[in-house]
Design a protein that fits this description.
alpha/beta, 290 residues, binds fe (iii) ion, five-stranded mixed β-sheet, 2 domains, ferric iron binding, metal-binding, dioxygenase, binds benzoic acid, catechol 1,2-dioxygenase activity, Intradiol_RC_Dioxygenase, globular
Length: 290
């Protein structure tokens, strides 16, 4: 079709879908909606050509920023609330299961497998407060889940994750722990501090364009997985941290706020944190989604 117009270009592009090669129903659904929303966005804001070129340049620079240590697109999605939205759509709460929240860009595969109760701290900071974290992992009927893997990661007291800080050892403040026959897990770590999400490169440009700030409240990332159960990607927030109500990536949930309490006399950490997890069976997850 030649000579498309402002009025018909959306329909013309949608009609081209699958014309030369078969596409799945899902591909058609996604592309139809994407084209509609993109075109309506351009019409609504009357996007100018210089703005369009600036956006293309922005995305190209975002791609160039990505490396095995930095995932710029997750960060951009977080800043505009897309990751938290996709997480809520993907993990609807059907009952008593623990709430999920965003993965974020700082997760690394293959964290060290550590014995129950071990510490993730490889390098101590003067200002750190140590914490003993423990709890139980159960199914929705209250039965203990043995052999669940709790993968944890957090920032150091300087506000940096180890993979963004050349002065921290590889995998500092990261570890994987297994729950025992009672579903109990435990590890030692440090109290997480609030930190700014990266404000350089394109993430910073986007935050400034939105007139927002970079700060996140202190949180421990925890991912809990066990075959046969819905994987849980979550974060435990420090109930005394600033920014709980103004998280730069909109990821705080009331149910995920934990209490870092002073440890009892004689304990080998400054603080203790108890947090239990409830995982739905994979089949229950499928039914909830249907
Ligand atoms: C994080 O919690 O690590 C995070 C999440 C979203 C964006 C940036 C950081
Ligand atoms: Fe984080």
């Amino acid at each position: 079709m030649r000579n498309v117009t402002i009025e018909n270009v959306t329909d013309v592009v949608i009609q081209s879908l699958g014309k030369h090669e078969a596409i799945s129903a899902r591909q058609r659904e996604i592309m139809t909606s994407l084209i509609h929303h993109l075109h309506d966005f351009c019409r609504e804001v009357n996007l100018t050509h210089p703005e369009f070129l600036a956006a293309c340049d922005f995305l190209a620079r975002a791609g160039q920023t990505c490396s095995d240590k930095r995932q710029e697109f997750i960060l951009l999605a977080d800043i505009v609330g897309v990751e938290v939205l996709v997480d809520m759509l993907s993990n609807p709460i059907a009952g008593s299961e623990t709430t999920s929240t965003v993965l974020g860009p700082f997760f690394r595969d293959n964290a060290p497998i550590l014995p129950k109760g071990a510490s993730t701290v490889q390098k101590a900071f003067d200002t750190q407060e140590t914490v003993f974290v423990e709890g139980y992992i159960r199914d929705v009927d209250g039965k203990p889940i043995q052999g669940a893997i709790v993968d944890v990661w957090e920032d150091a007291p300087n506000g940096l994750y180890e993979n963004h800080d050349p002065d921290q050892p590889d995998y500092n403040l990261r570890g994987r722990f297994e729950s025992d026959e009672n579903g109990h897990y435990a590890f030692r770590a440090i109290r997480p501090v609030p930190y700014p999400i990266p404000g350089d490169e394109t993430a910073g440009e986007l935050i400034r364009y939105m007139g927002h700030h970079q700060m996140r409240p202190g949180h421990l990332h925890m991912m809990v997985t066990r075959e046969g159960y819905r994987p849980l990607i979550s974060q435990i927030f420090d109930g005394e941290s600033p920014y709980l109500d103004e998280d730069s990536v909109f990821a705080v949930k009331q149910e995920l706020i934990g209490e870092f309490r002073k440890a009892p006399a004689g304990a080998d950490t400054d603080l203790v944190l108890r947090f239990d997890f409830t995982l739905p069976h994979a089949a229950e997850q499928r039914m909830a989604a249907e």
